[in-house]
Amino acid sequence: MRRRSMTIAFVATLLVGAANGCSEDEGSTVDAGRGGGAAPHSGSGGSVPVVAPTAGSATTAGAAATAGAAATAGSGGNSGASGPVASSEACSGLPIDLSGEASASGGAAAAGASALGDGDEACNGVSVEAEAVPVDVLVMMDRSQSMGLAVKGGTMTRWDALHDAVRSFTADLGAAEIRAGIGFFSLSGGGDDAKDCNPEAYAEPRVPIGLISDVGPELVAAMDGVKPGGLTPTVPALQGAISYARSWAQDNPGRATLVVLVTDGFPTQCENDPDQISQAARAGYESAEHIRTFVIGVGDVAKFNLDNYARAGGTNKAYLTDAGDVTSTFVDALSNITNRALACEYQLPAPPYDMKLDPEKVQVVYTPASGGSEEVPSISSLAACAKNPNGGWYYDNPDQPAKITVCPCTCARFQAGRVDVRLGCKPRLGLR
Predict the structure, then answer these.
(1) Helix 326-338 to helix 158-171 angle, to the nearest 10 degrees?
(2) In angstroms, what CA-CA distances link 405 with 139, 291, 348, 378?
(3) How far is the C-alpha of 338 from the C-alpha of 135, rounded, in Å?
(4) What phi, psi does 362 have (nearest 5°)?
(5) Is the pLDDT higher at 245 or at 64?
(6) Nearest one of 282, 427, 430, 408 to 345, comparing CA atoms
(7) Is 218 exposed, middle or buried (0-12, 13-18, 19+ CB in 10 A)?
(8) In contact, 393 and 366? CB cutoff 8 Å
(9) What pLDDT was estimated at residue 37?
(10) pTM of the model
(11) Higher pLDDT, 421 or 22
(12) Is the predicted pLDDT of residue 254 greater than 90, yes or no?
């Protein structure tokens, strides 16, 4: 067979913002509208330096982005959060020349390329389209007494604003094929620890995940039947939501299940330490089902803690609704989270015709809208992400791989552009 570069390609226009873990400079915002385009990374061809960026700010859902704004990466030492999620910022892959020669000119990039392998290899085959993994969503919504407070500058309560947002979101024809469910905390609405502190109770959502075209009216009715009241048992609520999400994911292979935590304040019941929330989110993200936790803050919330929860849950930044326009900015946040395939997980394409898949000969290449192509190193697991300044990708099951997952900092890098999965090509290896 004539030798030629084998590219398994899919082109994905990815949204900017917390949904793909992309960071902004302090004070910048994102376009959170349904179907909005991503602002491309700026860049040029040639070498891509190894970067370890600094932490950024929370995302404000629904605010307009400055044209061309994109995540920026700092330099210097790795300032990532504790645990396997090394950084909340985007990290560059290794420069690559798709004609067959790896480019590694210049200081840090050259050192990284040398450490990570022998470079690109020619490979044989035909192009096969690959697809990102679709998502299912469980919303775990705070209904504590503070949700009965009026929104800034108006008479509508936070709860009424969220109720209107859920009604608007589910009525949108563009959401009909989204799968979603909803649960609430506290359960008692009155500070009853026996009911409110049991994680298993939250593992049975008020409306189980289903197609919004089917369960949309049930989601709205569920909010009709709940009024603000009680304290804020966030830890058991998130633990229960993740438990349900893991079970759902096991029963729905080929999809990714997300938890969306909606809250307006600190935990005030059961476990009151915010770090316990981060630990619950991290446990879901590090589980075999790889459950990500998105966070939407409503009202006067502790922004720093919300970002910590999101980082621990693999989504890097919290969405913050606009205090004066909770309804539309909440809808925008849900749209960003649900109206896209998950940018961090991809189906491993089946090899075409009689070609046999060799799991040790698979490459992942990212080509930004502006700039040269980058190879994402192959690593062993999520835990190895913290060791690799150029990010990485790993299999869901090394023995029988079906999905490819990329590190959080790599996921943050994937904005406008395309990602190629190349079969028959030996990857450059990251630290194992």
Answers:
(1) 40
(2) 23, 12, 10, 10
(3) 7
(4) -135, 130
(5) 245
(6) 408
(7) middle
(8) no
(9) 31
(10) 0.68
(11) 421
(12) no
Cα–Cα distance for residue pair 256/396, rounded to 1 Å? 12
pLDDT tens for 259-279 read: 999 999 899 999 899 999 999
Q: For the chain, what's the residue count?
A: 432
In this prediction, residue 117 carries a pLDDT of 38
Domains of the chain: 1-131+345-432 (no CATH), 135-340 (3.40.50.410)
Mapped to the 3 state alphabet, what secondary structure does the chain carry?
Answer: CCCCCCCEEEECCCCCCHHHCCCCCCCCCCCCCCCCCCCCCCCCCCCCCCCCCCCCCCEECCCCCCCCCCCCCCCCCCCCCCCCCCCCCCCCCEECCCCCCCCCCCHHHHHHHHHHCCCCCCCCCCCCCCCEECEEEEEEEECCHHHHCECCCCCCEHHHHHHHHHHHHHHCHHHCCCEEEEEEECCCCCCCHHHHCCHHHHCCCCEEEEEHHHHHHHHHHHHHCCCCCCCCCHHHHHHHHHHHHHHHHHHCCCCEEEEEEEECCCCCCCCCCHHHHHHHHHHHHHCCCCCEEEEEECCCCCHHHHHHHHHHCCCCCCEECECCEHHHHHHHHHHHHHCCCEEEEEECCCCCCCCCCCCCCEEEEEEECCCCCEEECECCCHHHHHHCCCCCEEECCCCCCCEEEECHHHHHHCCCEEEEEEECCCCCECCC
Q: Is the pLDDT of residue 9 over 70?
A: no
pLDDT at 360 over 50: yes
